[in-house]
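Let us practice reading a record.
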Amino acid sequence: MRSTLFLLGAAAMVLASGPAGQSPSKGPTLYVIGDSTANRSNRRGWADPFADYFDPAKITVVNRAAGGRSARSFFTEGLWNWTLRDLKPGDYVLIQFGHNDGGAPDQPPARADLPGVSDESKTLTMPGGKTEVVHTYGWYIRRFVQDAKAKGAHPIVLSLTVRCRWREGKVERGLGGGCFGRWSRAVAEAENVPFVDVTNIIADAYEEMGAKRVLPLFEPDGTHTTRAGADLNASLTVAGLKGICSPLTEFLSAKGEAVPAARPNLQ
């Protein structure tokens, strides 16, 4: 991806969410739902600097992602209902999960989904003795999409961000062998809504940069980014939205307009 050097430079510039004193948008609102890779203190989640790429006079960007959440726990804890109540016709919702969705669904921290995209569900007993009906990962993503559409909003499904895990010069392209990205894409295609392959777009950029240059963009856990890493991922998400010709490109700021479009180099 020839644009990587530009994007890396942009990552070093962590800007405010808009010009001081500028009136908020009277247009649509863009919501982001997800986990701590999107929302983390000190602007270390990609959806924090993401607002810098949009013109606040045209659109309002609201980061509703929450640390530690899976698609299941975002739904069951009421975080989705909170966002859904605020949605109005013409709004947009970016949906990104996967980092916290694996594992045994009835074992601590009791947030994993059932695998796949079917309508399968199981009634399970949680560690504290409470029972819960647990659905597949795809069921929760589909619920977010369908609920948003029912409100007249525009859902966009994203695959998850990339961890700093390398082998023979290649970076890991998604947890679980990429299953969460495949399931996210399958739901988006079935529901006829846009899908942005953030995983492979980011992985392409990382591999062009090389592991030594990518490492400083991450915290020691290799999953969460620094502020510069968050801004790079935000710019690459914008690049992905441009790559699918999303209507959201109509609302970009000058910083967003300067980002080249990207489509993934599928491995």
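A brief commentary: The longest helix spans residues 227-243.
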